[in-house]
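Protein modeling request. Please complete all fields; requests missing the sequence field cannot be processed.
Requester role: graduate student
Desired output: 3D structure, token encoding
Chains: 1
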Amino acid sequence: VFIAQSRASGSHRDLEDEELTRIFVMIPKTYTEEDLREKFKMYGDIEYCSIIKNKTTGESKGLGYVRYLKPSQAALAIEECDRSYRAILAEPKNKSSESFEHDYYSNVMRPELRGNTLPFCMQPEFCSFEKAETRIQEPVSKRLSVVSRLPFIQEQLFALFDLVPGLEYCDVQRDPHTNSGYAVIQYSTAASAIYAKYKLHGFEYPPGNRLTVIFLEDGNDSSE
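Delivered output (224 residues):
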């Protein structure tokens, strides 16, 4: 599947450079640019790889970019690479949403985000809660409602909530009369839904736009 562009919207090569050949991935913090290139070279010819680093410490943030020579190669990498890389197309540098992926991924993974909690983990078995932090004062379920004053993009919202293990579906619903965003999220367990609500309620996505995340009735006994 290829993405068609209007001839009037710019040169073909520029469009490929800006929109179709650069992917954004989540990686182990131990990866070097050479490691990143080695993992993704099987999908096509790589123009460059870069790893996002902390400007103060120089340490990797566990995020990186891979730019291919052809859109088909980038698309293949997104579809075929391991799900743990959370690969998506990177936003063009010249758009208003510049560095959007960098902002929301790095914010979600920051340990200090919204109190004394653990960051998201690449592997579920290394994620845990402190029991004192999980006291819930409201009925819980495996289903969440997400509301925003800005509309959602299905793929990007899915990528955000898929950082919590157990995501079953993400359904973005559109109201033709308003510009607000609304989505229903469902996880395989209530524990995953609790964690997602705990981490993402009030989270700014994109920066400056806070999400409201609440539980939705899913028909199960919430006392469990």
